[in-house]
Design brief:
It is built from four helices and five strands. By secondary structure, the protein is α+β, with helices and mostly antiparallel strands. It has a five-stranded antiparallel β-sheet with strand order 2-1-5-4-3. A hairpin with a 7-residue loop joins β4 and β5. α1 runs antiparallel to α2 and α1 packs antiparallel against α4. The chain is rod-shaped.
Length: 191
């Protein structure tokens, strides 16, 4: 039982870590793709095209909670939300952002959001923030944990049933042998 519980816990933790890394890498990929495709609309001040790009990205990925495109002063050029963006996203200082993607985890009422910040231009302070919810990932890990628990219980139950059956099969001849030994020790005929 302890081995089964230990394995369930280990597998759940390991899968959650892999899912988290995958979610963050996906967020970085989405943010980088958006940064590349939004550069021209930003330079041309084409907010309609920029909005279409952002909405399309949000609609493609069910884990995306929000996307913000911001200038260096923190003004939102365009956005798309599924629910609300955490207030922490609006307070990020884009001027301090490096040229490499920055990932942070934000705790919200709805669970963890993995916020990815990517600069659009290396020499200008335009940035894209992509927030990915870990809710779907958490549900998948929880479902896997429940399934592993059920499998462990079934295997344990099957093992106990097999042990009881084997015990009965082995004990009957031993009981007969013990009875025969008692009869012989009294000097009676066993036949």
């Amino acid at each position: 039982i302890l081995l089964g519980l230990g394995m369930i816990n280990y597998v759940s933790i390991t899968v959650a870590q892999v899912f988290t890394e995958t979610l963050q890498q996906r967020g970085i990929a989405v943010a980088n793709d958006l940064a590349q495709s939004s550069a021209q609309p930003i330079l041309q001040n084409d907010n309609e095209t920029l909005s279409q790009l952002v909405r399309a990205a949000v609609n493609r990925d069910q884990d995306i909670a929000y996307i913000l495109v911001m200038d260096g002063e923190g003004n939102i050029l365009t956005n798309a939300f599924k629910g609300e963006a955490p207030s922490e996203t609006l307070s990020i200082d884009i001027e301090k952002a490096s040229d490499s993607p920055q990932v942070s985890v934000i705790e919200t009422d709805g669970g963890q959001i993995h916020n990815v910040l990517v600069k659009v231009f290396p020499d200008q302070d335009y940035a894209i923030q992509v927030g990915l919810s870990s809710a779907l990932m958490r549900r998948a890990v929880d479902t896997m944990g429940r399934r592993l628990s059920m499998i462990t219980i079934l295997v344990l139950g099957g093992g106990l049933a097999a042990a009881m059956l084997l015990t009965r099969v082995l004990i009957r001849p031993l009981n007969r042998l013990m009875e025969a030994t008692r009869v012989l020790s009294k000097g009676d005929d066993v036949t």
